[in-house]
Amino acid sequence: MNPRSFSIAIRACAMIGLHTFGRQIHAAVSKNGLGSNLPVVDSMLDVYCRRLQGNVALANALVDMYAKCGSISDSRKIFREMSERDLVSWTSMMIGYGAHGYGKEAVELFDEMVRFGIRPDRIVFVAVLTTCSHTGLIDEGLRWFESMSNYNVTPDQEIYGCVVDLLGRAGRAEEAYQLI
Predict the structure, then answer these.
(1) pTM across the whole model
(2) The predicted structure's pLDDT at residue 11
(3) Least CB-packed of 47, 72, 79, 127 within 10 Å?
C-alpha cells in the first residue's frame, strides 16, 4: 500500500459521496502510519470539506482544531472551502493566524470579513488587537481600535489591555499610560 493509492481512493470516495468508505480508508491510513503524508492528508481534508457543506458549526470546530494543532494550512483549507461562514468562522481563523504569528494574514482576513458584510464584535476586536500586538502591527492595531465605534463596539477593560500591550511592546509607554 502506498500513499498515492490511498490518496486516489480517498478522493474517489469524496467525489462520489461514499463517506463511510472514506472513513474506512482513513482508518487504514492511520493504521499503516501514513497519516502525515501530504497527498493523503489533502485527500482526507477533501472528504471532510465535502461533508461539511451546510454544517457551519462542525466546520468551525475543524477550523479551530486544526489551527490549535498548528496546522494552519489545513485550517485555512477548510475555512476557504466552507460554503457559508459566520462570525465564529472568521474569528476562529483570525485567532489561528494570530496564535501562529501570521499577523498580516489575520488583518487581511479581518478586512475581508468586513467587506463580506460581517460585523465584528468585541471578541473579534480582542483577537485582532492581540494579533497585532504579538506580531508588531502597531499601526493596524491602532487603526482597528479607533474604528470600533463604527461597529457599535465599546472598548472594555480587556480591549484597553490589548491596546496598552500593543503600545507597550512598541516602546510607546507614554501613550499607553495616557490611555489608562
Answers:
(1) 0.71
(2) 56
(3) 72
